[in-house]
Write a structure and sequence with these properties.
The complex is a heterodimer of chains A (78) and B (145). Chain A is an all-alpha fold and 78 residues long. Chain A has helices spanning 2-13, 17-49, 57-75. Chain B contains seven helices and five strands; from the N terminus they run βααβααβααββα. Helix content of chain B is 50%, strand content 13%. Chain B has helices spanning 12-20, 26-33, 44-53, 56-67, 82-90, 95-107, 133-144; strands at residues 7-10, 39-43, 73-76, 111-113, 129-131. The chains are: A mainly alpha (78), B alpha/beta (145).
Chain lengths: 78, 145
C-alpha cells in the first residue's frame, strides 16, 4: 500500500501545478460525495426502521416548521 | 450575485430532503451533490435543527464530512441579536423564520436556498433572496456554461 502511495505521489508531483490543484479539488469533491452518500444511507435506514422514510414532503416540511419554532423559542427564551 | 462564488445558506429542509432523497424533492439531493461547487454557511438555527433530526452518530458523520471542506462549508454557532429578530417579527415573521432571516443578515449572506414556499414570501426589501433548490441548480448550470 505504501509503495503504491509513493508511486502515486511521485506521479502526481510530476504534474503541472494547475493539474495538481484540479486533482486535489476532484479528490475533495469525491470525498464529500462519498461522505454524503454514507450519511444519507445511515439516515435513510434509520428512518425506514422508524417507519418514517415514506413521509411526504408536506409532512416533513410541516414537522420542520414546527421544530423551527420550538428550537427558536427555546434558544431565545426571554 | 453568483451562486457558485458567493456564500449561500441551505435551509434545513434542503439538507433533510437531500439526505432523505425525498422523491418529490429531487433537486435537494442534487444541490447536496453539488456541495463542492458551493460556499455554504450553516447558521446556528440550521445546525440545531439538523441536530434534532439526526442522531448522534449521523451528526458526527455530518461534522466529519464538513471538516473535509473548511474553505467551502462554514459553521456558525453564534446566537443572533434579539433586537434584530424582533425587527423581523415586527414584519410578521414567526420567531423561527425571523431567527433564520437574522442569521442571513448578520452573516451577510445574500442567498437562502429553501423549499419553504412561505418563507418571508410577503416581505419586501429583504437583504437576501430566497431560491428554491431547482432554481439554485439552474443558476449553477448557467454559471458553468
Amino acid at each position: 500500500m505504501s509503495l503504491c502511495i509513493d508511486e502515486l505521489a511521485t506521479k502526481i508531483a510530476s504534474f503541472d501545478p494547475v493539474d495538481q490543484d484540479a486533482l486535489w479539488e476532484k479528490v475533495a469533491a469525491l470525498n464529500v460525495q462519498r461522505g454524503l452518500k454514507n450519511l444519507s444511507q445511515k439516515y435513510r435506514a434509520r428512518l425506514a426502521a422508524e417507519g418514517k422514510l415514506d413521509q411526504t414532503a408536506d409532512t416533513v416540511m410541516a414537522e420542520l416548521k414546527k421544530l423551527r419554532e420550538e428550537i427558536a423559542a427555546n434558544d431565545y427564551r426571554t | 450575485m453568483t451562486i457558485g462564488r458567493d456564500w449561500v445558506v441551505l435551509d434545513t429542509n434542503v439538507w433533510i430532503f437531500g439526505l432523505r432523497y425525498q422523491p418529490d424533492q429531487p433537486a435537494c439531493a442534487q444541490v447536496l451533490q453539488r456541495l463542492p461547487q458551493l460556499h455554504v454557511k450553516v447558521p446556528r438555527q440550521v445546525l440545531l435543527e439538523l441536530q434534532a433530526n439526526l442522531n448522534g452518530e449521523e451528526m458526527r458523520d455530518f461534522f466529519r464530512l464538513i471538516r473535509r471542506y473548511p474553505e467551502r462549508v462554514d459553521l456558525h454557532w453564534d446566537k443572533v441579536e434579539l433586537s434584530l429578530i424582533r425587527k423581523y417579527q415586527q414584519l410578521a415573521c414567526k420567531l423561527g423564520d425571523a431567527t433564520v432571516a437574522t442569521h442571513m443578515e448578520t452573516l451577510g449572506v445574500e442567498t437562502l436556498v429553501s423549499e419553504n414556499r412561505d418563507f418571508l414570501y410577503e416581505i419586501k426589501g429583504l437583504p437576501f433572496r430566497v431560491l428554491r433548490a431547482e432554481d439554485a441548480l439552474r443558476e449553477l448550470e448557467e454559471e458553468v456554461e
